[in-house]
Amino acid sequence: MKNSRRSFLKIAGVSALGLVIKPVFNTFASSEEHAEHLKPDFSKKNNALTGKRWGMVIDTRKFQSEEDLKPIIDACNSIHNIPDLKVKNHEIKWIWEDEYEHAFTDSENEYVNERVKHLPFLVLCNHCDDPPCVRACPTKATFKREDGIVLMDFHRCIGCRFCMAACPYGSRSFNFRDPRPGIEHQNPDYPTRTKGVVEKCNFCAERLAVGKMPKCVEVSNGAIAFGDLDDPDSTVRKLLKENYTIRRKPSLGTHPSVFYIV
Amino acid sequence: MLENALKGNKGYWTLIIVLLVIMGVAGLCYLKQFTFGLGITGMSRDVSWGFYIAQFTFLVGVAAGGVMVALPYYLHNYKAFGKITILGEFLAIASVSMCLLFILADLGQVQRALNVLLHPTPHSVLFWDMIVLNGYLFLNIIVGWNVLEAERNSVPPPQWIKPFIYISIPWAFGIHTVTAYLFCGLPGRHYWLTAILAPRFLASAFAAGPSLLLLLCFIIRKVTNFDPGKQAIQALAKIITYAIIANVFFFLCEVFVAFYSNIPGHTVHLKYLFVGLHGHGVLVPWMWASVIFMTVAIILLVNPVTRQNESILMVSCILIFIGTWIDKGLGMISGGFVPSPLHHVNEYVPTILEIIISLGVWATGFFILTILFKIAISVEQEVEA
Questions:
Q1: Which of A31, A102, A165 lies closest to B186 in CB terms?
Q2: Is the pTM value of this prediction over 0.85?
Q3: How far apart are the C-alpha atoms of B102 and B33, rounded to whole Å?
């Protein structure tokens, strides 16, 4: 008697648990709302720029001072709704400037020439061919596209920050708070982010899709070139053939897609 | 057996209520973090993991440390550990629960946590960490509960439990190995990029876990008539001695490799931790305290005269627990992030809210532990009566 009541309660308990788990799982696992009237268009536009492996060549000889870099950084910040949050611990950076010894920690040279020593270098996500961040991400929220661009899915990211620990270039930022109050003029063509997700430079994938070059390239007066590293006739390949270029931390084997002419 | 948790003396209920109050206060602080974001912590772009992940790392060690009593008892039939094996298993349950809570507390988007199951990603170590931690929790609940129930009914444990017991022993090594792999497979983080990280984690785990278990045994012996027995205490003390020696030895190997090769990437983090870098050295006194505590404990434990004195043994266990906690729960994570990959020194200090939330998780763990130990000891007393 006692036994049968006990086993009945066990079965009833498990059944009730099963009924409860499904809706809870649905609620927690999905944070997207499927609205019927919003039918997104995923088709490739005819004017989209396509490549096998996008890459960037930055000609640092064309920069003299921070003043030359500011418009480039500002342009990126404004079109991507990157907030200015006033607190250093909360800062978000996609493309920014740093000195040679910080950008190229592998190439320490205390007697490097005066120009390079004091020159500000642009640093951004390297869109590595073998990206450690993609390897680390437990949800594939950061992933490498077939054209070599390493992207973030802001809606899938759980904010574990494993990718930030994995990135050897310090190229990733985390939204420690709601970024929207820090955006002065919102660009409606690019999404704002929510608190608790990671973000970084996306090589302007949203602009390539509509036939435009990355914003930093567009406003650099020819100092930054962008193109397909896989295409021997591309601008970037031509520049790489004619100039000596360096990459950041090449010894780590991540194969960065951003090159610097020094 | 659960009904045993509902009967207790005044001291037992006072402890339960104190823990519940801490959990409540921490819960309110967590609500603040949930609404504002992780900006309430001391973390930044450069130090993107902090106190939460450090506590998680340390507590995985405490959970794995339980295997140091389970292994001799189940595999070598070492009868002296008969009474404390169940305590080791229950300590593992409480520790792994804390680990999981610390991971959840550290997530930026906790409501999306199940994405890890929805999009399984085998090339991410975090995916495997989720599997081993939850698996270990499940194994200890199954084994602990059934073995205790069998003891209560004065029958041998059921046959079907055997495979679970045998799996749980290598699994314990697995949880801390996988946790070390979270750190030591990352390019550009030279402080963690070392093959000895997993062995070092295990050595400190087998010192810290059994130390806490011994301290808990001393407390229980004081407040109840439960006695783990002299033989068990001394055997555990020897295990702790070997483990802490191994831990310090592994650390010294690290120091040798870094400073004899003199590769800046390897020395710079140790310099930051032990002497400071560019005028930043918030962890310097802590790290020296850790090294001194562990060294003093080794001296006290190696000598059989001092080891067999239970007061000195207790002090040694406290020193080891605090020493290993500083090493893993403070230095290991911050030390890996400072200086940053671009060689900037941005230090990390946890905020008050962060510390209260962490205390809340610890209180939750001790709440689980108190209830489980209460059940285990009540059963032991029933059997003896």
A1: A165
A2: yes
A3: 13
